[in-house]
Amino acid sequence: MKAALLQLNVGDDPAANLVQTSALLGAAVDAGAQFVLSPEVTNCISTRRDRQQEVLQDEASDITLAGLRAQAAARGIWLLIGSLAVKTDDADGRFANRQFLIGPDGDIRARYDKIHMFDVQIGEGETYRESAGYRPGTRAVVADMPGFRLGMATCYDMRFGHLSRALVQAGAQVLVYPSAFSPVTGAAHWHSLLRARAIESGAWVLAPAQTGTHPATSGSQRSTYGHSLVVDPWGDVVVDAGAEPGFSVFDLDISKVTDARRRIPALENAREFDGP
Ligand SMILES: O=C(O)CNC(=O)[C@H](CS)NC(=O)CCC(=O)C(=O)O
User: 161: CA distance to ligand 1 center in Å?
Assistant: First the structure.
């Protein structure tokens, strides 16, 4: 199956972001992609909670979800929306950071709410507290596509190897990590973490990413690392999209999962143990 990662530079205006995403999606499909993946928070990046409250909706009214579902149906493709920030019934008014798998009929086939919240102090004044704005998910999700099973995880989730292990033990052959990674931690950890997840799992790792300095009509601008990555089940980097927005088409060959797991049967060799 031919697949494509979209690398986006979204701002805090969902309508403008949808125009950007739609154009790249169309170009990727024209280039032959039957499965397209977009990054974390495809609908909006903002450092301001009040701006998010103003421009974002719940799932039923989200313009990005409606627009992209219609395009998936019109073009007959599978679409993984890396995530949307959507309003929930959370008592504290927090959003969900929710992935959607859309089928070629435009129907929602699976949803996943990001489990691990990026609550960190990287240093030099750079602090993130994702759990202030987002309600974490509590359930790991796999979903079936034609010929393979997808394991869904988002961005910071890639640092928690027991989540990817649970997904591959549930049959996942393709792990997705749509992201909006910080530039500092991206330079330090991005490639190593994603290659490790692919190698220890014998699985494809697909990580569409946000990139660059994100335009903001209000509040401070945020920057992300880019470098959307495809790692094959042996750990080789097949796509590194660099810093510019765009799309990258690649061949998602599931037989490579079987090959990698035959050479290193780590899933079969795994053992239960006592202690420490
Ligand atoms: O804030 C939003 O609107 C959406 N959420 C994100 O962009 C999240 C939390 S700030 N980003 C990450 O998890 C980056 C993780 C990362 O950079 C690392 O693990 O090093």
Answer: 17
118 touches ligand 1 (CB under 6 Å): yes
Q: Which of 2, 5, 39, 1 is nearest to 246 (CA)?
A: 5
> CA of 244: how far to CAs of 207, 226, 237, 256, in Å?
15, 8, 18, 29
Q: Among 41, 50, 64, 156, which is best to mutate for testing ligand 1, by the most ligand atoms less than 8 A from CB?
A: 156
- Tokens coding 230: 């495809």
Largest Cα–Cα separation, the chain? 55
Q: What is the mean pLDDT of residues 40-51?
A: 96
Please give the CATH topology (third level) of the domain spanning 2-269: Nitrilase/N-carbamoyl-D-aminoacid amidohydrolase (3.60.110)
Q: Is 155 a catalytic residue?
A: yes
What is this structure's pTM? 0.98
Q: Is 4 in the pocket of ligand 1 (CB under 6 A)?
A: no
**Backbone phi and psi for residue 94, each to the nearest 5 degrees, phi listed first:** -80, 155
